[in-house]
Design a protein that fits this description.
The chain is mainly alpha-helical. It has helices at 3-9, 23-39, 48-54, 59-62, 64-76, 80-87, 89-109, 113-127, 130-141, 147-175, 180-183, 185-200, 214-233, 243-265, 279-308, 314-321, 324-338, 344-363, 371-397, 405-444, 451-462, 468-505.
């Protein structure tokens, strides 16, 4: 089967393609909306310590700025199919972009952490349909022969955002004020919404008044919300030694179990879980979710370590993390054009191998590691990003009928965004806990009359640092070494996880048609 034929069969039916002269501006508008949403998953990462300091909270609490957004988006993304069928895909997309722009402005106006977290949660709620529908609208409005290229351009937008996210976040935080990391969404959002509406308002998809699965929706909010609250607060409340954490764990387990049972039996499910009966979707989503969780955990941990331990400014932390997008930008279109020439499972396996090797590479660094050494593994990760997103998306959507493509895209993005939020919570908890463990163990080796302790303090005294100042410097050194040891351990764990994920990829079966990438039949 030809590339064009496969693409046409894999795309929901719709109006004729847009005229060629309108495709560039249409692609720019849709791509910018995707860029804006993906940007906001990373732009705040390097600014978290600064935001936390300005709002008088700890850096650990500041990570709520990241996790609250991911949680809200995860809840709403699976509702995309129902919302689009009820109100139309064009209207849903444009309204979502506008509301996202407004929520971004509110984030910038926040004067306390609860306000900021609340507005970030709102921002995540309205962002849900943006990415799934941007992909769907591109497929609908491009000619069949060019849909592979359209998805390559869309994928490039997704991988360009990580370049600008850390850099913009760091530069703005250092040279302006942190609210501007949210204000910059205003011109992008307004342009994308107006342009998309102008070009597509007469090309609205059919709508249907379908009942909303209220019980399923409530179960989704309760189950996923309780799970995220448990993850975010577990470390501070000593996990299951806390009645609150234990209660949240029970509520999450009951809520999610009830959700699965209800959605599989309801006539109009809010989440189409029957998609998991498709082998490639089932194992593809597992590989996507866990792979993205591990990748996002690295993206969160690296700037946190650089700023709190290595004393990097937000700008320099952004420079250290940004290179991941460079090779991703170069390699992604090549992968998209040539994915029909290789087994997509090989491509995804290559991604996990490279991710694992770079995670191990990070685990070998120490407190004397220079910026130049940090950049190389992050640069190499860009190759893995290209071979991760395009093949995995194509694998998990292969075999999905056109009428269920939006639901499948929404559900896969649901697990992606939820896994990113979970990755943030888990990695910060592990890092904090292991840092404390190593600090205690290192401190146990220091005694007032110990030979090493006395020699080091004498050396400090000869340099003019004595008394309490000397002890403070020793304490700072203990913390830095403990955090460095914890960082190495966490990266080791991430490397092992990537290795295990290769097995899930090979549980899928060809042929893999076009679904968000390029042709891939075997």
């Amino acid at each position: 089967m030809t590339t064009a034929a496969i693409t046409a069969d894999s795309t929901p039916a719709g109006p004729a393609p847009l005229p060629p002269h309108l495709l560039p501006i249409f692609t720019i508008a849709v791509a910018l909306s995707t860029f804006m949403e993906v940007l906001d998953t990373s732009i705040a990462n390097v600014a978290v310590p600064t935001i936390a300091g300005n709002l008088a909270v700890s850096p650990d609490m500041g990570t709520w700025v990241i996790s609250s957004y991911g949680l809200a988006a995860a809840i709403v993304v699976p509702l995309t199919g129902w919302i689009a069928r009820r109100f139309g895909e064009v209207k849903t997309f444009c309204v979502s972009v506008l509301l996202f722009t407004i929520a971004s402005a509110l984030c910038g106006l926040a004067t306390s952490l609860p306000m900021l977290v609340g507005f970030r949660f709102l921002q995540g709620l309205v962002s849900g349909p943006m990415v799934p529908l941007s992909q769907t609208l591109l497929l609908q409005n491009y000619p069949p022969a060019k849909r592979g290229m359209a998805m390559a351009l869309w994928s490039m937008t997704v991988v360009v955002a990580p370049i600008f996210g850390p850099l913009l976040g760091g530069w703005i935080t250092d040279n302006a004020t942190w609210p501007w990391i949210f204000y910059i969404n205003a011109p992008i959002g307004v342009f994308a919404a107006i342009t998309a509406w102008t070009l597509l308002r007469h090309r609205e998809t059919p709508t249907a008044s379908q009942p909303i699965d209220v019980i399923g929706l409530v179960a989704l909010f309760i189950g996923v919300g309780s799970l995220q609250l448990m993850l975010d607060n577990g470390n501070d409340l000593d996990w299951f030694n806390s009645n609150v954490i234990s209660a949240l764990a029970v509520i999450a387990a009951v809520g999610l179990t009830f959700l699965v049972i209800w959605e599989l039996t309801d006539d109009h499910p809010i989440v189409d879980l029957s998609l998991f009966k498709t082998r490639n979707f089932r194992f593809g989503v597992i590989a996507m979710a866990l792979g993205y969780m591990a990748f996002f955990a690295m993206t969160v941990l690296l700037p946190l370590w650089l700023q709190t331990v290595m004393n990097y400014t937000p700008t320099w932390a952004g420079i250290a993390t940004a290179p991941v997008g460079i090779f991703a930008l170069i390699v992604s279109p090549l992968v998209g054009r040539n994915s029909h020439r290789f087994d997509l499972r090989m491509g995804a396996s290559l991604a996990f191998i490279v991710f694992g090797l770079t995670a191990w590479w990070f685990s070998t660094f120490n407190l004397d590691t220079s910026l130049g050494h940090l950049i190389w593994p992050r640069l190499l990760q860009g190759v893995a990003v290209a071979f991760f997103f395009i093949p995995i998306n194509q694998i998990l959507l292969s075999g999905v009928t056109p009428s269920r493509m939006a639901a499948a895209s929404g559900l896969s993005n649901f697990f992606r965004t939820l896994s990113g939020s979970m990755g943030t919570a888990i990695v910060t908890t592990l890092w904090t806990h292991r840092t404390q463990v190593h600090e205690v163990r290192l401190a146990e080796n220091l005694t007032p009359n110990g030979v090493a302790s006395t020699a080091y303090l004498d050396t400090l005294a000869q340099g003019g640092v004595s008394g309490n100042a000397g002890y403070a410097q020793v304490q700072g050194l203990i913390h830095a070494q403990g955090a460095m040891m914890a960082t190495s351990e966490v990266f080791w764990g991430i490397a092992i996880l990537f290795g295990l994920l290769i097995g899930f990829v090979w549980l899928t079966r060809p042929p893999f048609g076009v679904a968000g990438g390029a042709a891939g039949g075997h």
